[in-house]
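Q: My labmate handed me this sequence with no annotations at all. I'd like to see what the chain might look like in three dimensions before we decide whether it's worth expressing. Could you predict it?
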Amino acid sequence: MRIGVVTGISRSNPYVFYVRIDQKDGKPSHMLQIDDVVKVQFRYHPQGELVYYGVVVEIEAKWDFGPLSGYEEELALKGLSPASPIFLATVMTTRMLKIEDGRIVPDAPQVPPPPGATVDLARDEEIDTALGFDEIIQKHYAIPIGVFRNGRPAYADVRYVLGENGAHINISGQSGVAAKTSYATFLVKSFLDTGNRLKDKNELMAALARSRFIIFNVKGEGLLFLDKWSKDWKELEGTETRRSWQEMYETLQIHAEPFRIVKFYAPKKPHRDEPWVNKRNEGVETYGWDIVDIMKLGLFELLFDQEELEKNQNLQLAVMSVQEVLQQRFEDAIQKAREFCRNNHIRVPADPEMVIRTAIANGFDVKARADLPDGLDDLIEMFEKDEEFKTRIAQEVQGKSTIAALIRRLKAAKAVGFDLLWMKTDFLKFDSSKSKRIDWDRPGQVTVIDISKLRSRPQYFVVGAVLLEVMKSREEKTNQDPVFIFLDELNKYAPRYGGGALSSIFRDIAERGRSFRIILVGAEQTASEVDYRIITQSSTTVVGRQKGAELAKPEYSHLTNEQKARAALLQQGEMIVDQPFMRIPITIRFPLPAWCTREDGAAEEWSKKDLEKRLFGGD
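A: Here is what I predict for the chain of 619 residues:
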């Protein structure tokens, strides 16, 4: 459908051209909107027949050859002075194609469309062609990420998600209005459903279906109910709003239902061996790391304040010295555990970690037999009673004041809650069925790890420990299934400046993770406060509603000026998405999650037994 012509009033080039909208009786025959997709077809010699597609990014209305003042405008409005309204649309070119032998081929020459060329509104499949979706749909690489204003689905390319061509996703926006967490969980749902729907089409989609998803719950308990229906979704059943959301899900071929395969983890309560949760009363397991985990994964440094270690070199040296001594003792402990198994006629596993765990399960005391601390209290005690340990540390660290400072930091670590995370091996009460390890490595599983009730330093420890375990598991084996890691408040864990060992872990994942199919989905209020080496590694960048001052930062230079202005006005459920295979970021909408993302937003589901108990009491 014709909507206007390429105008010569403004200067066009191959990447931006301007459309004068056709009028009838002084009104546009068909008024364009922002994000509409248009098409212009023209011919040049010797290039031949060319087809350009573009997206409308700005529309302006003004008088043409008319009023220059309010007085003159009044005359024009009364028909006493000649003037004509004009409507101009700014279009950013998204696709340049060429027609050869009746076929459309890519890689057209880059030339400006001529003034006067007819401009048509693109519809239906032409929109997919305009935005490059046609190729990824045909090859079954397309993952739905939302819908356009006209209801057409928008897609991501799985090759830029799983690390074939790029990886990592970053989502930024104002807290409470940008819906960052809702959109992240919507993407997880789309990845799972799309992967399962297309797993027989190619290996990338099969891998997407087998992906693991690790989600850190950093505030409240909202993400501990992903397997429950959303109360808002249920209450709006039968309404026009609910029907429109349902249509979105059907268009995107995503199931509007809670997540099916989910495991929930929380730290244990102080002085009690049960999950530290308030709202969710079932289906949550506790997590923690013992001395074997701490040594194997190199977690000792994460017990300390990372910024302080960067500033205090003496304290950092002391920490490294303690870690080296403990590491050497740990290696000796493996040999002692191997001998223990042989002496007790126990089959010795090949994996060094399993050697020591098998020994512990059969009565091997790491504290008495291997001189390893079985908790923070034991480590603090070693500075007082373990002569060999004290001598070794004193040789490395000059000055008793530094050692005293280190002991104070360890006592402070216990005070802020690290004793909730450092679990005892406890050979006397060892029960292999009650492991505190987080069981995240299962195909198609969403694992939610609650850290919301921990203080900042224990939170850093949990995040670092999980990231290191994921990296180690993927480095040791090839051809592993993808792992997605979602973390909100990324600027807190990987700040622009400083951050110590934890920031180094994030940088490693950002720069090397895609080689092992480890994909970071980071979210934050302000992208300008995240480590630059991490933020720039994201193939897919998503911006929700954002403040103008933040949008002026270089981190948002991928947006046009018009999109920056629009980003400050986005509503909940609207996102601007920038992807490498597209020439311009796109604005999409996504439906209300059918699953619960708020701790008070779960729909109540009562079984017959629950109902009888509530009505009549009793067990």
